[in-house]
Design a protein that fits this description.
Length: about 180
């Protein structure tokens, strides 16, 4: 403790104020295979943490095998902790639209099933409004011939996936999943 106080005193004397951290926020997206989605969002400045897991189903603490069976109702998803002073939720939603095909309801690339659906799980009324406006703007843009299939639903309990899924491409090389960027 004495060392920490001494470092802070020296920093203050030198005119270096400790960084003030504001409140972090959460964002949760499902856009197909969670490995690629995680890889895309981890590179974004302002994303403090990202973890892959399962959300939107009926089973408590589902396993990957259970989610892949299609019987739990969960989607493979990414939960992001971000600093809204550095990156806005709106910018994260814009990236979400770019990393997958939002016209595909229960598939992305070669991955098929409800666990690969396109979903935005909002954590606040403000996030819901931003997501809905962004979806409407994308639909009106004419970029896609098919309608946008992405669901916008309240965030449910997020179950962190098994450790071998976390930072999968960093551990195993990649990316190899679908991407539209």
């Amino acid at each position: 403790m004495k060392l920490l106080l001494r470092i802070l005193s020296i920093a203050l004397l030198a005119g270096i104020a400790p960084a003030e951290e504001g409140p972090m926020e959460k964002a949760t997206f499902a856009a197909g295979c969670f490995w690629g989605v995680e890889s895309a969002f981890r590179t974004v400045e302002g994303v403090v943490d990202a973890q892959v897991g399962y959300v939107g189903g009926e089973t408590d603490n589902p396993t990957y095998r259970e989610v892949c069976s299609g019987r739990t109702g969960h989607a493979e998803a990414l939960e992001i902790t971000f600093d809204p002073a550095v990156i806005t939720y709106k910018k994260l939603v814009e990236l979400f639209w770019r990393v997958h095909n939002p016209t595909q309801a229960n598939r992305q690339g070669p991955d098929v099933g409800t666990q690969y659906r396109s979903s935005i799980f909002y954590h606040s009324p403000e996030q819901k409004e931003i997501a809905e406006k962004s979806k409407a703007a994308l639909a009106a843009s004419g970029k896609y011939k098919k309608p946008i299939a992405t669901e916008i639903v309240p965030a449910a309990t997020f179950y962190r996936a098994e450790e071998y899924h976390q930072r999968y491409f960093e551990k195993n090389g990649g990316p190899v999943c679908h991407f539209f960027e």
